Amino acid sequence: MNKLRFLTAGESHGPCLTGIVEGMPAGLEVSEDYIAVQLARRQHGYGRGGRMKIEQDRAEILAGVANGKTTGGPIALRIENRDWPNWKDRKLPPLTVPRPGHADWAGGIKYGHDDMRLVLERASARETTTRVACSALARRLLEEFGMRVFSHIIQIGPVRVETLITGDPEQFAQVDESPVRCLDPEGEARMIAAIDEARAKGDTLGGVFEVVVTGMVPGMGSYVHWDRKLDGRLAQAIMSINAIKGVELGGGFTTAGLFGTQAHDQIYLKDGRVVRASNRAGGTEGGVTNGEPLIVRGAMKPISTTISPQHSVDLATGQDSPTQYQRSDVCAVPAAGVIGEAMVALVVADAFLEKFGGDSVAEMRHNVEGFLASSKRWLELN
User: For residues 137 and 24, is the Cβ–Cβ distance under 8 A?
Assistant: First the structure.
């Protein structure tokens, strides 16, 4: 059973989005302003659509926080959809032409909806707004114990860069200054050009984001049960994000082409401490964190809603029909990186709570300090 659970509700064009976060310890300082910073990061990025000009997302804390600190009870969040007044009185025709690659077709079959607007309203990536809000609480918990969550973009369309992550906070701040959240200036320019080309063609682009967590504590996760392995939990979380079709940890698919002596992170002693020569494992071994930075990548397919029509079928008439354009982004990979951060933060915070328990931050701190003290014999060989 998860120690940290969250649930979201709401539709893309409904009055609001809501979220419940259960399992946060008492005594953690949180604020609506802190959550708002993360929500704003999700809305930015070159290639976003017109909806981002309408929404100015802010989460209202309705329960579980008193005097700026968590109480230990479930935390309730509400995010207004500012576009709701523009849609509530519209009489829209049923959507009967499914878009290839979208949930329209499969969702209509599953729930028996003749009007696939009932599918797209919940299947929309607008739902991830609530995930980012909920995850801000998890992020605050991790920060309290020295862990930092960061992401950057390494590929958009055909443009790929390889950027070395140092863990420097200045580097973390630098990425959000880039319109495509890329640390490579030359790569940034090429990514922007690729997005402009896709927009001119009425098309869309996908890409790859990388999430990095520094300050990781060893011993989180488990190797004894398949469903407790942290690798698997992270993969499921990243794959749950809209349009994600692939996940890597550490070297991922690259290590599949190496010899074993090249692929693994060999162990050395340096000044009496155990160190690694590399981090191709991405911070986990056997489903357990080893203290190295956690590295997770997600591959996002191009958005399925394109201005240029795709071939489909009108299920109401039984005739071939081009798809109908629904307002969307050209490229949402920069935003997907922020959502990737959100899901990784939620999984790591859950594993952290699972390992160190505690109903309050003070109790957890005591547990963490005790564990690290008892683990010194594995980390320091003097």
Answer: yes
Q: Supply the Cα-derived Rg of the chain in whole angstroms.
A: 22
Summarize pLDDT for 121-141 with one digit per residue, the tens: 999 999 999 999 999 999 999
pLDDT tens digit sequence for 160-190? 998 777 767 778 788 999 999 999 999 999 9
